[in-house]
Design brief:
alpha/beta; Rossmann fold; Transcription Regulator spoIIAA; six-stranded parallel beta sheet; 12 helices; binds S-adenosyl-L-homocysteine; binds iron/sulfur cluster; binds FE3-S4 cluster
Amino acid sequence: MDEARERYHIQTYGCQMNEHDSEVLAGILEQEGLVEAEDITEAGVVLVNTCCVRESAEQRILGELGRLKLLKYKNPDVVMGVCGCMVMNDDSLQEIRRRASHVDFVIGTNQLHRLPEFLQRARKERQLLVERDRVHDVLPTDLPRRRASGVRAWVPIIYGCDNYCAYCIVPYVRGPERSRPPEGVVDDVRKLAADGVREITLLGQNVNSYGHDLQRDMNFADLLEVVDGIPGIRWIRYTTSHPRDYSHELVERIAELDSVCEHFHLPVQSGSDRILQQMNRGYTRAQYLDLINHIRAVHPHSAITTDVIVGFPGETEEDFCATYSLFERVRFDNAFSFLYSPRSGTRAAQLPGQVSREVRGERLDRLNQLQHGISLECNRPLEGEELTVLVDGPSERDASVMRGRTRTNKLVLLPEAGDWENQFVRARIERAEPYQLIGHVTGGDEN
Ligand code: SAH
Ligand code: SF4
Ligand code: F3S
């Protein structure tokens, strides 16, 4: 590594959109001549890319910012920047100002392209610089990007969210929905394919509403079809889908697109119609179950996963039981369960009947316990099967174990498979656990 070049370190919290944004931030810094630090203590520029979707995320980030104070104390020349969703929320920003006087600049989610200017100014001006223009008219296309993986890549297709689910802060911090023109998406995917990428994930808070704001007849299924035709890309994923906007037609069209993976992530949020209505989700339990049935009929070998919130204001034991029974009925492959977290400025934060921490925690435990058993039962039949896996890289816990994913997005651990990094392999599954499969490589799979 070039000793003379300045180093940077980026810490990322939150969803895939933030991970993607961090790749853009890294790309911009590298264009400015910086290189990634092996250790944060070597870095001359430290960025924290934040999330405010739940209070627990914010607390963790504020704690981390507190620890970074020591770094700044030891080396006052380090430039520290905070970006991401917390910056766009007034209360969170105030908290950053109060707890992190050592931060040099703060930039909003739609100002990433101005990072070089802020670095320069931060070095000259010794006061907190804040830039978080709420005008969301510049789509951050054509920015450089430094990808973390060689074969997988994120591709944003729609920014922001118009849904205003009653509990959610995202529409306030990410602005209104704006679809990227399909040419930009296709161009991006072509370049990635030429660069060796084999799997892409199309990103948006609600990918199913793609295209409604474009001046032409183009929806998400049309976009998938176009991207499916791009040579080199073998697997296409997308996240996140909104069940309300996931049409039966889309389920059927996906069956005709070879590259689109059979993994359906459909956040249900609650199994109670009363709560779904309060949440402003726009579908009923019956409509959700109907969609699941249709997916299972058209894609019998698919995996279905979900997000759920436990303890939304006014949730009674009966409402919770409706969620519990929906889980028993659907038998999700996996579920991300969250304790409801009040977010200031959202409608739900004002609702009466906030559920106590104890009750929320107890319900979450019950649901997790149920899901644990179901996830294991979903994975068990895979023991002895041979599956195609895209091998990512070493697992964080043990560098001799490679990790990869199946088309259905199951995590597979492959001990001693180092030679297969970044390749498609066939893997025999030896053991199933609730949240991962353990197997061994039987050969390459380059079709
Ligand atoms: N746009 C995506 C992702 C939103 S955030 C979607 O619609 O699914 C990811 C998940 O966080 C959501 O699905 C929801 O389950 C959870 N979440 C959002 N706000 C929350 C809150 N205030 N408290 C608890 N969980 C929340
Ligand atoms: Fe939040 Fe709902 Fe938008 Fe998802 S769809 S980001 S949960 S408001
Ligand atoms: Fe968090 Fe922002 Fe994503 S609030 S979940 S990082 S859009």
